[in-house]
Amino acid sequence: MEKPDYVKNFARPANTEIKFIRGHWYLYERRSVYDPQLGRSKKISGNILGSITEQGLVPSKARREWVNPVLNDVVEVGAVSYIYQKTALMRDKLQKYFPDIWQYIYTAAVIRAAYDCRFRRMQLHYEGSILSYIYPNLSFMPGSITEFLNTLGRMRGVIRGYMQEMVAEHERFLLFDGHRLLSASHTVDNAECGYDSKMRYKPQINLLYMFTLGEDIGYPVYYKQYLGSTLDVSAFSDILKESTAYADNCTVIADKGFASDDDFSLLEECGLKYVIPLKRGNRFVKGHVPASPFGYEEAFSFNGRGIHSLTLPGEGFHIHLFLDTDLLAQEISDVTKRTEKYNTAIGRRKEQELKRRRKGKGRLTDEELESLEPLTVKEAYVDKEEMGTITLKTNRTELNAFQVYSIYKQRQAIEQFFKTYGDTMSYEASYMRNNYTEEAWLFLNHLSSMIGVNAIEEIASIGESKNISYKDLVQTLVKIKAGKTDEKWIVYPVKKSVQKLCEKIQLNPYDLTGLGL
Questions:
Q1: CA 181 to CA 382: how far, in whole Å?
Q2: CA 262 to chain centre
Q3: How many CA atoms lie within 13 A of 146 on its CB side?
Q4: What pTM was computed for the model?
Q5: Where are the domains of the chain?
Q6: What is the 8-class DSSP label of residue 298?
Q7: How deeply is 509 buried, as exposed, middle or buried, from its count of CB atoms within 10 A (0-12, 13-18, 19+)?
Q8: Could you tell me the sign of the dihedral formed by the alpha carbons of 81, 82, 88, 93, in that order?
Q9: 312 in Cβ contact with 296 (< 8 Å)
Q10: pLDDT (tens digit, 9 = 90+) per residue, 420-451?
């Protein structure tokens, strides 16, 4: 049937379709669902939104808030403007891989990065943000967001393609040991009870990440979730194949708890390169620790710290022993303080016992009193010949000591990422109810965390890491508001403290031209 003019002229919102049913015109939701047989997403119809009449759309009662969102006249523009100008590449890639729902994905990622990670508050933040004007007619009401998460979570194949393109754009990678995320759901298949690093016995999944190798940062490019009981080595091999990265371009960096002989054997069998720290007192360096910095082979400076190195060749691997002079000074100071505290306590106890004995009320035996002797310097440093040292084992024998140390120090950036992921952005525990919403939650976390890491990197690049945290940044920027007058956006006066921060990050708070409005 030919559409009447009022239907032809109807401004159809994104992600919807018009249907003619029994003599009436209706507006329906339309979404994309990944079809594993087709190897791509396909479009399917969703719930009815209302009927289209000559007077306009008459929304269904259940969806009235979707088609008539509450838009504020005064909205937040600072945090969104900052993130928007930094994420042009992210928007392009999302539009390429998720053409039907990319605006929804991007908006959700920005809201969770700038305001709050909790889904129940997303509609409120959306309505109070300039995002509601940049990408209008989105709904983050409970019913809509559940449907969105289920749709996105079914698109793991598309998510994989999105991340694989990022992998293809880089050459060198770090594979990090698994990071456990708690799950409150009993219906997520990958959640298994076990102990995490904080010794909490709760259902958890094993989240593995791949990072690019840069000069000072480890930038997240690929993730995959596994059963909580999955061995990290098995996960390393699997994510390597799925990400399409070459094994020769990857290096595993794990923690000291990973460094058993069986772990190293599995890594070798899987053909994986590694740089892994060993615990102090290990058999490789015993008897080889120099008595002073002069006994090391080389010395170099790393981030202003003096590092001495000694390389011990092994069969198919190298052991690199490093002395960090700053760390050595810290540990000597700690030993001195502990020894001084111990000797003071021993002296006080001995004096009290002698006083009691002079009164004929002694409590200790002669042997116990005799044992109350202060520690000498020599005794205080027994078994501490490895103070200030770090031992690394690697099968990347083509690298020198400085290169191995530099790669290992990438771990600090990766640990910062997981600190951002868990503590700063509160993505440490999941409350998703099924496998699909869990996958969607992880992907949104991935996008929001990339936004956070970019911001943290910029803060570091201007030398403000000690003064400005990521939370400081977004909490300051959200104070920038704008109002719409005569179809034109006007930014309200910005406080001096906010203006000062904007100058540091080179953001003009009064310029909204880059938002595409």
A1: 40
A2: 29
A3: 7
A4: 0.69
A5: 5-67, 74-153+462-515
A6: E
A7: buried
A8: negative
A9: no
A10: 555 544 445 445 557 788 889 889 988 988 88
